[in-house]
Amino acid sequence: xxxxxxxxxxxxxxxxxxxxxxxxxxxxxxxxxxxxxxxxxxxxxxxxxxxxxxxxxxxxxxxxxxxxxxxxxxxxxxxxxxxxxxxxxxxxxxxxxxxxxxxxxxxxxxxxxxxxxxxxxxxxxxxxxxxxxxxxxxxxxxxxxxxxxxxxxxxxxxxxxxxxxxxxxxxxxxxxxxxxxxxxxxxxxxxxxxxxxxxxxxxxxxxxxxxxxxxxxxxxxxxxxxxxxxxxxxxxxxxxxxxxxxxxxxxxxxxxxxxxxxxxxxxxxxxxxxxxxxxxxxxxxxxxxxxxxxxxxxxxxxxxxxxxxxxxxxxxxxxxxxxxxxxxxxxxxxxxxxxxxxxxxxxxxx
Length: 350
What we know:
The protein is α/β, with parallel strands linked by helices. The protein is about 40% helix and about 15% strand. The protein is globular.
């Protein structure tokens, strides 16, 4: 297939793009390569995809030297004309929209970035999918949409009307916008609620990266909520497998769906939402222990209270993913952390 992947220089987008190319798909990738975190990591990912450029001009198409089926554009999601050009010129059959302004804590100090990228940018993707007859739009949501919900594990059938960060609110908005387009225009859309993704080429603003860097530099790590946190850590290869299965299986409307007892995860329209998580939450102290073992070094710890916008625990109910697509992530934390540390040492030469 010809697939458009947004966020190609991002963590999940890079791994997904490589996987799609390896199986023979043609990929058109876009990313604005912003400086939310160290751009050296983003350029490193693009280099792995066959690009040797030290800079990319906005709006210009670049062909990979390693993958003849990959074309890359540096553009902003807010640039409607550029988005329309790519859809009109390349005519993707399916779209996986992963580009977004990420980060819960950053949304507390830079809210405008989330409206522009995650709301306005998503509208542009929806409009282009609608006008250029895309067969299926899969897009990144987030486990953060569960907000104040304390019922565990988090189910896609749970109410998600109480987000506690603008980032979470923007992702919930994406789900609502997608359903509207599925209902009005018959555009098949699938939202993917990712749970704490980690692994090689991971984001420098995430805990695994921050902890590894600090421990190697003999600095104390910040342990929030005094270590009483749980996260459903999900290894990147498991995430990508789930995304690929979703891309390959556009949703259909459920005939038995009832507006009297509406299931929020589905609809009469071709709309679906899935959790992609490991389904087995890991305590923060256990996670830190896995990093210490992989590094062969004990961490100095600075225990702090829970940060605004954070939740104490996440836990994915993956029943729907298993039932519809026959898949459940299951990579052990020791293996995944070990692979990240191996990559980190090689990339930074430490």
